[in-house]
Amino acid sequence: MTSTSFSHFFPFLSWFKLMRQSLFHKPQNKKQLITTLHDAKRRNLLSAETLEMIEGALQVSEKHVRDVMIPRSQMVVLELHAPPSQLVKTIVESGHSRFPVIGENRDDVQGIFLAKDLLDYYAQGGVNQFNMRDLMRPAVFIPESKRLNVLLREFRTNRNHIAIVVDEYSGVAGLVTIEDVIEQIVGDIDDEHDIDDQVFIKSSRNGLYVVLALTPIEDFNEYFNCEFGDEEFDTIGGLVMQAFGHVPKRSETLQLAGFHFEVARASGRRIFLLRVKPPSIPFPLLLENEK
């Protein structure tokens, strides 16, 4: 082959070499794997949603229960000796289906109560004496250092949906649900208490509002007749995250210009949903009215 003919085929040989390297190169670590996945997304082989789920699945093995748990102070609990009428009030207002049952204090978790188990009592017209101990399920206790992938496997194996998180001193640090773990993989899971993506702000019970984090600050100001600045951030979620100084976890709260913000939904990267109490109703008074 002459030098002229070799140079004619050189571009083809270079392209073939690059293709072979691309097809047969195997990622040697997780960082290289993520780079390969991002390259696949750029070439439209993966959607953004699929890439986010894969990254979430990879990160689950690196996260611990303490990273996603609902802190002790934000737990909605039922008291062991509370009458059924009080239990119903707490269950309806929270919208949850499973609750830790406590004795003398929040460190004294006696078990887990399922809201549906209260239906039998009312279906029978309350003819049977209500006994919480007969209805509650055993509580599962886990350390806050447990990895999420291990916890997810245990949840699936034991068909359990909730666990009580304890610290190194055996005190209750919080609770975690199977939904908290799954959301780290698939992202936010909407339920009947969430609002449609097309509705930025929706009034809730007891003077509270459910607000999408993507709500433009201008719309938030108009709705609540307030004056948050929109020079630095476009959305209320961005403004709240700056005020926190970090990406907050679910149930973290913040007071800002008289507004009480609670993070209702969040991932490790952003806020999705907020519960907001405007300053028109003093927060202590609101809590007093809920008693």
Keywords:
291 residues; globular; 40% helix; 11 helices; alpha+beta
Strands of the widest sheet, in order across it, are 8-9-12-11-10
What is the β-strand count? 12
Specify the overall morphology.
globular
Looking at how many chains there are and whether they match, the oligomeric state comes to single chain
In the CATH scheme, what's the topology name of the largest domain?
CBS-domain
End-to-end Cα distance, whole Å, is: 93 Å
Count of distinct structural domains: 3
Strand content bin: 15-25%
Helix/strand/pairing category: alpha+beta
Report on the architecture of this protein.
This protein is an alpha+beta fold. It has 3 domains: 3-46, no CATH class; 66-186, CBS-domain (Roll), CATH 3.10.580; 201-290, Uridine Diphospho-n-acetylenolpyruvylglucosamine Reductase, domain 3 (2-Layer Sandwich), CATH 3.30.465. The chain has 11 helices and 12 strands. It has helices at 3-24, 30-42, 48-60, 84-94, 117-123, 132-135, 148-158, 178-186, 217-224, 236-244, 283-290, and strands at 70-71, 78-79, 98-102, 109-114, 141-143, 162-166, 172-177, 201-203, 209-212, 253-256, 259-266, 271-277. The strands form 3 sheets. The chain has a 5-stranded antiparallel beta sheet with strand order 8-9-12-11-10, covered by helices on one side. Strands 1-7-6-5 form a 4-stranded mixed beta sheet. A 3-stranded mixed beta sheet has the order 2-3-4. A hairpin with a 4-residue loop joins strand 11 and strand 12 (271-277). Helix 2 (30-42) runs antiparallel to helix 3 and helix 3 packs across helix 8 (178-186). It starts with a helix and ends with a helix.
